[in-house]
Design brief:
By secondary structure, this protein is of the alpha+beta class. The chain has one domain: Roll (Ubiquitin-like (UB roll)). Helices cover about 25% and strands about 30% of the residues. A hairpin with a 2-residue loop joins strand 3 and strand 4.
């Protein structure tokens, strides 16, 4: 599969200290939930950020709001947006 671009915004970007990366997904990762599991396997803050879904986490795929079940294809842009600060 061609690489996807993953963008991190809000509190995620501050916590993970990354704003953007390119990932070549294994064939077993078919959707946003699978991508989250893959990211959580990095451990530490990544596990806290992506180990489970929560209402404060928004996802877009190719700049369109998406659910965790949204299918991914090579070349997609996935953005994770979270802001829980007050």
């Amino acid at each position: 599969m061609n690489p996807i671009t993953v963008l991190y915004f809000g509190d995620l970007m501050a916590r993970l200290q990354i704003g953007r990366e390119s990932l070549r997904l294994p064939m077993s990762v078919k959707d946003v939930a699978g991508l989250m599991k893959l990211l959580a396997m990095r451990g530490g803050d990544w596990r806290c950020a992506f180990g489970q879904t929560r209402a404060s986490l928004r996802v877009t795929v190719n700049k369109q709001d998406a659910g965790f079940d949204a299918t991914l294809q090579g070349g997609d842009e996935v953005a994770f947006i979270e802001s829980v600060s007050i």
